[in-house]
Amino acid sequence: MHLPNRLHVPAILQTLQVVADPVQFLDTCAQRYGDTFTTRVLGFNSPPVVFFGNPKALQDIFTAPAESFDFGKATHVFEPLMGKQSIILQEGKAHQRQRQLLLPPFHGDRMRAYGRTIAQITQEAIAHWQPHATIAIHHLMPDITLQIILQVVFGITPGQRYTTLKRLLSRLLEDITQPAYSSLFFFPPLQLDLGKWSPWGNFKQRLAQIDRLIYAEIAERRQQQDASKTDILSLLLSAKDATGAGMSDEELRDQLVSLLLLGYETTAASLTWAFYWIHSLPSVQSQLRAELASLGHHPTPEQITQLPYLNALTQESLRLYPIALISMPRMLKVPLSIASQEYPCGTVVIPCIYLAHQNPQTYPQPRQFQPERFLARKFTPYEFLPFGGGSRGCIGAAFSLYEMKLILATILSHWQLQPLSNQPVKPVRRGITMVPAGGVSLRVVERVAHFQTPVAPSC
Question: Binding of heme: at which residues (predicted)?
């Protein structure tokens, strides 16, 4: 069967191109072929992989029955890190069960209860700033988001285990975001455990250290059964499915690691981009600061997160360089019609978030940062999809947006910052997301005196 706009380059070269510079790869393909093209980017023996950026195509994919797809064969690269029980790798009833267990802590009053912790962690991270200091935002944001995950998701309070886990995780996550290291996950023949001096053996040993700490935390929490704790691990420990069964230790470990990987570097990268845009465009910063100041002293987290311009700014930052470039890959188990074209079994279809967000018909002047677009209209889930879509959309989407807005507001409500350079930055790959090349460094100017950050919980 004919597949649209095939790339006539060996599969191994396509894979290396998309690993090394995915934005350039997608831009080049889109310029040549439009918003739909066929690649082979899953290693040596890659099946056909079709990228889609058209809203109609995305709607057809996201609304198709889940039984049409095999998710495991398209997401196997995540298994060594996230584990076999990760929600990312589950299908059918197993996926539905895990999603039902995982969703409640990320919504409603439970999620909003985390606002004070997010603000407190952020306040502590900036407490020792002084005027004229230089702040590397690209280092600060991962530190803050990792602490939020450890305290809000894992429920670990600062202490020896917290410090050790934070150190091990930050080092491992730093390494696996490098192209050379992350390439190991795309090429199984390179996954040879020859001891700690071999790349894969080193990875396995480091992951085992982290796993021991996570399993120790799970074991202690099962014994404590503290009903007053509201972190996500505690809620998952008490969660029961329709049969009355809870999650096993292995399931809990795999979900915690998945939440860590999906919510750490990704959110940090989006925040780094937001700080870049805010301090590169004076009109944006002026409008945002005026909106924050309008709340007066001690606004609640909910007052902050409902601000229209702050929300629009956060959405525009996620549009221009989304948390992930693609939504969950899906391999067709049955033929499927997508945007009026039939695709055969075995085809991997990828709803491409980046291509959808760069569509000039949806977003005029797509490479310009314009928060006003999100004030002027509401986009469909097939036009704006920073967290994916359909039954495989990110379960932490609402939490991530909430977290981003509170971190931005907390820092901007304490300090006036300015860029060190007015030079534009380019995106480079870091793990599964895109970050500003060379990072984003800002100079501390002075304290903001006319209003303060939120300190009161809303619940």
Answer: 394
| Distance, CA of 341 to chain centre | 31
- The residues, any chain, with a CB within 8 Å of residue 18's CB and separated by 6 or more, are 25, 39, 41
Q: Which two tokens stand for residue 316?
A: 């525009």
Q: What is the pTM of this model?
A: 0.91
Q: Are strands 330-332 and 336-338 parallel, antiparallel or unpaired?
A: unpaired
Cα of 63 vs its chain's centroid, Å: 22
Residue ranges of domains in the chain, CATH in brackets: 11-447 (1.10.630.10)
What is the model's pLDDT at position 456?
A: 43
**With 50 as the cut, is the pLDDT of residue 458 above it?**
no
345: annotated binding-site residue? no
Q: What is the pLDDT of residue 145?
A: 95
